[in-house]
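step: validate -> pass
step: tokenize input -> pass
step: predict -> running
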Amino acid sequence: MASAISSGSEENFSCPICLDLFSSPVSTTCGHNFCRTCITKFWDEQLQYKCPVCRTLFKKRPDLWINTLLSELAAQFQTSIRVKEQLCVKPGEVPCDVCTGTQLKAVKSCLECFMSFCQTHLEPHQRVTVLKKHRLVKPMDRLEERMCKKHKQLLELFCQTEQVFVCQFCREADHKSHPVIPLKEEYEVKRAQLGKIEAEVQQMIQERQKNIQEIKDTVKCSKADADREINDGVQVLTALMRCIEKCQDDLNQMVKERLKSTEKQAEGLIKELEQEIEDLRNRSSEVKQLSHTKDQLHFLQAFRSLKNPPPTRDWTTVEVRPPSYVGTLRRSLDQLEETLNMEMEKLCDAELKMVQQYEVDLTLDPDTADRHLILSEDGKQVHNGGVRKKLPDNSKRFTKKIHVLTRQSISTGRFYFEVQVKDKTQWYLGVARESINRKVEVIVTPGNGYWTLFYYKDGLVFIDNPVVRLPLRAEVQKVGVFVDFDEGLVSFYDVEARDHLYSATGCTFTEPLYPILCPGRHDYESNNSAPLIISPVNQTD
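step: predict -> pass
step: emit ->
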């Protein structure tokens, strides 16, 4: 019977329904065999009782007979397969050095023969008198590497002082005063370190992949901005006389050079990131390969020679800043202002529409408001009430200037907001850095952290040292403020006239900026009681 089982195939002991080895096999009256569960479930789902194999139709549900013989044969077949699988060498196991063809796994290794043997080939060591004296240990590969060359003993210990592998005799001699631990302890320590290294490598890879995607996204946006700017420029400049053809060429060249510079920077960073990822992946491959090593000695030997992490850049501070084209075309046309007034009006309108896309929703912060100011409940309006209120003091509140800041700030990117200044005889507004001194009298200049536009009866000025007086064609009804934090740009617009008022360029922003409003002094004679109102953007104006 054993011979029949060993020569049989799995198909002979498989259920025709589930195709697995029989489990509680039963026979039908037509002579076919099935698992009891399989045939029962099959008939439960049928309207007629048929044999799944020969399709014999039964008038009533047949009685099932337990096939004891088939059950025993299937069990023996399963056992024979399991035994065969257990005997064959698997990845990570030590093969028999004597077996030819299909190698079986070793059950013992001989420290005298420097070989490993399966149960069959171990038999001489259990029978021959001379071989019986050999030292047998659990299966190990590369036995010669595991032996102390000085004492011919197994390297089972690790010297923490000299970081070398030693045997028992070494420990009692040259390493007597050193801390010596079993290989297993050192193995566990280094294996834990290996897991940490792998986690760090994977995190670095993910961070760099994220950096690459961010750079690609930035370049994509930069290309869109560049295309839009070039197209707008072409539409304006092609309508001009030949005298401004050079202006058109200069504009296109400037935009393309900025884009090319951005792309070149991005390409360089991407190549550097990809190289770091390749180096990290190679290291990850080495780490993963080592992590699968169960041999303690080999693991520690390889771990000790593991390369140091590849040098990498700190990417947390690296970014590709997209060039800003706001005002590029306008500035290129300044020298042709008299000739190009009509085209400049069209340009300013397009520029305003573009910056209006960066609108942010702002509300005033009552904790920063001077005691003379009155804010609306929705935080969108402010006016000077003329009376100094009793309010709790705090580090955020202005005490010497009738100012108020918004709750919101910006520390990167671009933003835009509009403020209605209608019916006012005095006001100023703009942005200020977070660290401005709110308890003393200061001149609100860029040097002190303010970038503001000031309006009073004598005109409109940008407050600087010295002040910049601006032409005022008509009374300003609504002011738009655009800030490009990364580019260092603050621009002011007359929203109703669709006109550009002033731009502060080349600014250096090192901390968050807050929109700042000042409704001016309370003066009944000058009728300055109207509020400043933060207004929603209406691009149809």
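step: describe -> The radius of gyration is 42 Å.
step: cleanup -> pass
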